[in-house]
Amino acid sequence: xxxxxxxxxxxxxxxxxxxxxxxxxxxxxxxxxxxxxxxxxxxxxxxxxxxxxxxxxxxxxxxxxxxxxxxxxxxxxxxxxxxxxxxxxxxxxxxxxxxxxxxxxxxxxxxxxxxxxxxxxxxxxxxxxxxxxxxxxxxxxxxxxxxxxxxxxxxxxxxxxxxxxxxxxxxxxxxxxxxxxxxxxxxxxxxxxxxxxxxxxxxxxxxxxxxxxxxxxxxxxxxxxxxxxxxxxxxxxxxxxxxxxxxxxxxxxxxxxxxxxxxxxxxxxxxxxxxxxxxxxxxxxxxxxxxxxxxxxxxxxxxxxxxxxxxxxxxxxxxxxxxxxxxxxxxxxxxxxxxxxxxxxxxxxxxxxxxxxxxxxxxxxxxxxx
Amino acid sequence: xxxxxxxxxxxxxxxxxxxxxxxxxxxxxxxxxxxxxxxxxxxxxxxxxxxxxxxxxxxxxxxxxxxxxxxxxxxxxxxxxxxxxxxxxxxxxxxxxxxxxxxxxxxxxxxxxxxxxxxxxxxxxxxxxxxxxxxxxxxxxxxxxxxxxxxxxxxxxxxxxxxxxxxxxxxxxxxxxxxxxxxxxxxxxxxxxxxxxxxxxxxxxxxxxxxxxxxxxxxxxxxxxxxxxxxxxx
Lengths: 370, 234
Prior knowledge:
The structure holds two protein chains of two kinds. Chain A is α+β, with helices and mostly antiparallel strands.
């Protein structure tokens, strides 16, 4: 399913002029606050009417200002998960979940209530009222409610933004399952690199109401210039890897990637399963020779393919490690001392402990249907 | 105690009539009350201030003026009265239905106000969420807006009922004070105070009036609390 957006919309003195197209399994709309992400997703959902433009999803035109076409939100069959769960306070969790089913034509109901309840782990909450749920539980119920309307497209507007780290960690695996186990394409709004790198198959970067870049996650995440200043420290390469073996004795998992073996803290993922890791540029050291007597466990050989000035005293070095890109942020002083230049063969050094739960997640399984 | 319960048939009728008139006035006001409250809370249109003023008019005008205006419009020769009598057989003048109309009109601003406030308190984002789940605006209103407005609806209905129980000026002007037909409790009490030796009767009806009003108030409190608990609005 392809989502095509080409709109211009003005809100006060803020204008959104965006054009993008994505057929990804989970497309992230990524950008700093005020970049127009939420406006865009509200336009797709039909919560706002654009001044001008065209929106289509899966070949169905939803908005076409030239033809005077605007499909109202209740006829779009597009599910939406809001940042503030927006559960119906006067209904039980079970009634909230069933709400959308009433309005779905019987022939188009594909979502099965037991399956969704199991997928999101909300079986024990069914009789409760929304007021009695925690933030994370509310958000899981909101996801379930949207799924049970059997949508053709699922929109998620910063679903984790109002939750604390523990709650985020609780929900992320459910969103991964959603992405991998259901066939619904997802458009996901986020300003967090950690979330985007972990979840997205494709990224659309928004800046000041315009699309700054779009493409597959791996390619976009390497472009540190696209990242907002406050998130730049989180930037880095995203590598798709697979579990090679678990080292129970030392509490580590060894991943195989293009760049070589990567040791991360022990994962519960089964052998062979895809895993996606994000290596923050600031966590990567560069050595000109294979280091000895060093505690760091991950040493990846590579060639310098890019040197970009970074913020303040830093430079950003791009390495080609056997086809995979790894980014490093070091000081200009180190670069000069080590005489790093394009084409030089070096070693990227990454500590195992720099991988945490926020940057190690389930990888996207190999695509069968594109 | 005996003199208290020993009501004359006319007095019993006044009690029964008052309850009937107040109940009918309350129930008949609800649909238009919800509609007008919705329009005032959500609508953006020319003349909204005028409509708001019109709804509040019975609250500001002397009741006698409202009663007289009703007489002019809904009386036998009034435009609305003649039309309704001819096409639907509904006659208001000097009937208990007229008393109900007068009471409904007098309580209308109170009802609309209570409902409007609670409609304005409904989070429109929740309605938008219902829309994305496939509910058209009518369904959203019926399944989200209206249930969330329930406490306000109850409050509005009880206010309308209480106002109807106490209505005197507009009723007596519009439909007069006919025993067994339009003589509600206040009218009956007024009649007792106008005749020598009517003190005991006036006091009896006054006490009954107090009991009914208190019962209505308690009922609304219980109902509102039950609804509130069901919705977990803390």
